[in-house]
Design brief:
about 60 residues, two-stranded antiparallel sheet, two-stranded antiparallel ribbon
């Protein structure tokens, strides 16, 4: 079995098709697309993500 580093879980996602779903985002994307909407997912290492209102650890097994 392989493991991955999760950097976000979005419950009740309504985008990308009909119905409700849970989306799990994993770290370590090798593509390096210039239009990437989730650049925090490029690195395989855990990081601290800061916003104007909060701070949280990004990346856990």
């Amino acid at each position: 079995m392989k493991t991955g580093i999760i950097f976000d879980i979005k419950e009740f996602a309504i985008h990308d098709g009909p119905g409700l779903r849970t989306t799990v985002f994993l770290k370590g994307c090798p593509l390096d697309c210039s239009w990437c909407h989730n650049p925090e997912g490029k690195s395989i290492h855990p990081q601290i993500m800061r916003t104007d209102t909060s701070e949280r650890l990004v990346g856990r097994e």
